[in-house]
Amino acid sequence: MDPSSIGLYGFALVVLLLAIRVPIAFVLTGVASIGTFLVFATRGGNWMPERALNPTSSMVVNSFFELIHSYDLSMIPLFVALGNIAYHAGITTRIYNSANVWLRGLPGGVGIASVVGCAGFSAISGSSVACASTMGRICVPEMLRLGYDRRLATASVAAGGTLGSLIPPSVLFILYGIFTETSISKLFLAGILPGLLTLAGYVVVITWWAARNPNAAPLDPAPLPAGARRQAAIASWPAVLLFGVIIGGIYGGIFTATEAAAISVVLTALIGLVQRTLGLRQLWVAIRTSLEQTAAIFLIAASAKIFVSFVALTGAAALVAEWVAGMDLSPLVLMLFIVILYLFLGMLLDPVGIIVLTLPFVIPLVEHMHMDLIWFGVIVVKLLEIGLITPPVGLNVFVIGSVAGRSVKVDDIFSGVLRFLLMDIVVLALLVAFPIISTLILNGL
């Protein structure tokens, strides 16, 4: 069997194993290791397993350590820690409270405040699932208490949580940048306008929903105390400061993305300790949680690096790229096929699994068409964002379901999420049709 066939069969096996819910790290490492062994053992047309052991083990170990020792990868634990410390310091709660005070008088105001709060949390954390989990515990009980439609109350936070993938910083942008060797700082900046456009789309959905069915989003009858808006705005200054450090520092060329993350973690901890909203015990809980989440991400990323090395060894990606190039597809038709592929995989797999599984095959096609890898990164992350609320997997939906408890069925959340999914498709179409949305800020640098 030639190496390219081994690579293609290996890819098919990975998809099958992931579809039946075998843990992704074990799948990628296992298939890549066995496939690499077969490539070396059958080289030259003869079966000689004794010559395959050393190069296989060398490839696996070197790929693992090459990724773990990556400087850019250090951003992931820093941004994960930033989000956890900000939550325990009460900064994320103040983001929502401020938005709620200012927007509660609008139709669906508390729902709008929820997605705005999710956007604010996303600006200081890189995980969509963490955003949905954190904001779900804050926002969903409040909307249910006010008599909001259960579908609106839960779906708005499930959809709003996906903003953690697009609004920088983003773990998915970091992984994309590492595997495609593109600038992570540029990816962060490219995600700002698409993230804000998505946020605006969600606000439109909630406003339309509340206007069409006022009973789905009752106004809060409690009057605001004097000066409440001013106090709420002042209380949210830590989040504004952190966002300014991350985006302003990167945009202004003052910090690299990694330096901005490190400075923000220290600032967040100091703010919490000085304001006495964060104790040493809470700080330890935040660090421990960050270590657990980072270990899971690193294990998947390292396994993906091993799989990428296996794919490169077999030449399967180049074979696929050559086959697609022979079809003489236009860039638009190719993008349509890529979008369909990611939407389909989003129904079955988690975002990290999709990105590490597809990039070795998709990026050569994109480069062959001379597409901008920064713009394409935004499209990929937007598609992964959509997958977070796409049935039947929809990780954010199940996260919100666990937060809401037995009072809300997962089917109800999926029913409400459909409206946001339609808006996501509209935003995706705009991003594909008008790449300037993603590159405008970069062009201004």
Kindly list the characteristics that best describe this protein.
transmembrane; single chain; 445 residues; mainly alpha; cell membrane; 23 helices; 0% strand; globular
Structure write-up:
This is TRAP transporter large permease protein. The complex comprises the extracytoplasmic solute receptor protein and the two transmembrane proteins. It comes from Rhodobacter flavimaris. Keywords: Cell inner membrane, Cell membrane, Membrane, Transmembrane, Transmembrane helix, Transport. There is one protein chain. The chain has 445 residues and is mainly alpha-helical. Among the domains are: 1-69 and 305-314, no CATH class; 72-278 and 436-443, no CATH class. It is 77% helix and 0% strand. The longest helix is centred in the C-terminal third of the chain and has 35 residues, at 280-314.
Termini separation comes to: 51 Å
- H/E element order: HHHHHHHHHHHHHHHHHHHHHHH
- Distinct helical segment count: 23
Helix content: over 70%
Structural class: mainly alpha
Shape: globular
- Gyration radius (Cα, Å) is 23 Å
What is the strand content? under 5%
Which spans have pLDDT < 50 for at least 5 consecutive residues? none
Main sheet properties = none
Give the tally of β-strands: 0
Mean pLDDT: 86
Q: Identify the quaternary structure here.
A: single chain
Provide a quick synopsis of the model:
The chain crosses the membrane at residues 6-39, 73-90, 110-131, 152-176, 188-211, 232-251, 295-321, 333-366, 373-400, 420-442. The protein has 23 helices and no strands.
